[in-house]
Each structure stands twice: as structure tokens, then as C-alpha cells.
Specification:
The structure is a homodimer of 153-residue chains. With 153 residues, chain A is an alpha+beta fold. Chain A contains three helices and six strands; from the N terminus they run H-H-E-E-H-E-E-E-E.
């Protein structure tokens, strides 16, 4: 009897851990990403700047080399504030890997104009870390989906 | 006295945890990546296939959308076996974030021909997870550094 109760307790604990380690943070991370993208859509680059950690590292197709650190990241994105507008965006196939204080979100992103035409397609990987109780982006990798210019290996 | 001993014990435990949670896995992940790249250099795509987890997700510039699952990943890379050769490669600025059973490695990669000219430049993000005691790649994002074709936001 005691053994069974212990087994039930074990299952309950594992269930609670799986809830807290996967579903909760995963949904929270996706929500944070969407909030930053909503601001980005209106040219507000500060959604991503505020969400970034001090030690963020960042790739995008305009950079010759990885960009490191929030100060540099802010100096890079800041001048774009309100310089663009995206009519509509769509997150495709979001997938999240979570492990306590680290979370990795990856998805495809399509941007559209007001006529419903796709203006750009992106591959995105966002790595989040829980720092002082808040999820922050520590690594971000944005690339164009199937850019036309292709080199060999 | 007991309090001090407990404090020393606490510091020792934290020191051991930091050793095992950061430096060790970080170096191990970088070593695994280099081993797979050494095989890749000679057209052996199975280094990365063997290193991948069953639930791997994968971005590269040839794909219209993210590729999911080891079976699909193998079917995609397999036909490239021994179809290419890279004379020399160089990993630039490797950075690793580790947290117990998750590790994120990001770096720039330059490939060279025998004359020492750069043939391609890459941005790479590799997400590793410890599964059954072994580090496996669960997410991989490869993109060309500053590809010539650029679209707007």
C-alpha cells in the first residue's frame, strides 16, 4: 500500500515537473516572441531590444559577422525605429525546446503586404534564458528562407 | 564552526556544479561539432546525421521550410555523401551557452579552397541536448553570411 502511494506520489511529481518544465515556459516564450513581433510589425524595434539579455548574440543576413552584446545590438536596431511597417506577419510551425531556464524557439515567418502577397520569408531561431525570473533572448538567428543567391559548400 | 563548514561545503558544491554544467559540456559540444565538421569537410555527411536527435529540426538556405525529424534529415543529407570536398574550414568566434542538458553553440564558419580563398561564409546555430547520456543536435540553423540577395522587411 505504502509502495503504491509512493508510486502515485512519484507520478504526480513527474507530472508537475513536466508541466512546469515544458508547457508553461514554452507558451510564455511564444507569447513574448509574438509581443515583440507585434511591435516589430509597426516599426517598433524596442520590443526585441528590451527582450534581449546583456550577453545576446545575433545573426541576420545584413551582418558580415555575429553581433555580440546588448549595447551593440541596440546600436544596430535602434536607428530602424519606425522606419518600416509590416502589414501582416504569420508564424509557421513554431517548435519549442524547453529545459528549466533555457528555451529554444524556432519557426518560419512570412511577412505580407496589404494585397496579401508575401514580401519576405524568414527562418528564425530564438534562444531564451530565464534571468532573474524573466525570459530574455540570449541568442537570435534570423535568415532569409531560400535566398536566391546560393554558393557551393 | 558548523555554519562555516556548511558554507564551505555549499561553495564547493556550487563550484562542482559550475564545472559540470558549464566548462565540461561546452568543451564537449565544441569537440563534437568539430568532429562532425571534419567529416563534412571530406563529404562525409554522416557525422551530422549520427549526431542528430530523432526530433531534430533543421534550417539551411536551400530549404523552403524547416525540416523536421531525423528520417527526413537523413533523406535530405544522405545523397550528398562524398559529393563535395572542402579544402579547409575555420570556426570563428564560437560561443556556447550551457545549462545542464541543453547547450547552444553559435559561430561563423569560413570555408576555403586550396589557394586560400574563401569559398563560402556561414552563420551557424547548433542546439544540443543530452539524451541518454549523449549530446545530440536537436536544432540546427545554417545560413549564408550576408547573402547578396536581400529583400526588405
Amino acid at each position: 500500500m505504502k509502495k503504491n502511494l509512493f508510486k502515485i506520489f512519484q507520478i504526480f511529481v513527474l507530472f508537475c515537473i513536466s508541466l512546469s518544465a515544458n508547457d508553461g515556459p514554452c507558451q510564455e516564450i511564444l507569447k513574448l516572441e509574438k509581443t515583440a513581433l507585434d511591435r516589430w510589425q509597426n516599426g517598433d524595434v524596442y520590443g526585441f531590444i528590451e527582450l534581449s539579455a546583456e550577453n545576446i548574440s545575433y545573426f541576420d543576413p545584413s551582418l558580415e559577422i555575429r553581433l555580440d552584446g546588448k549595447r551593440v545590438f541596440k546600436a544596430y536596431l535602434g536607428p530602424l525605429f519606425k522606419k518600416f511597417k509590416i502589414y501582416r506577419y504569420e508564424i509557421l510551425n513554431p517548435k519549442i525546446y524547453c529545459n528549466g531556464s533555457l528555451g529554444v524557439l524556432c519557426f518560419n515567418l512570412h511577412n505580407y503586404n496589404k494585397d496579401g502577397a508575401v514580401t519576405s520569408k524568414w527562418n528564425s531561431t530564438e534562444v531564451y534564458q530565464k534571468i532573474d525570473g524573466k525570459w530574455k533572448i540570449i541568442h537570435s538567428h534570423w535568415s532569409k528562407t531560400k535566398p536566391k543567391t546560393e554558393n557551393k559548400q
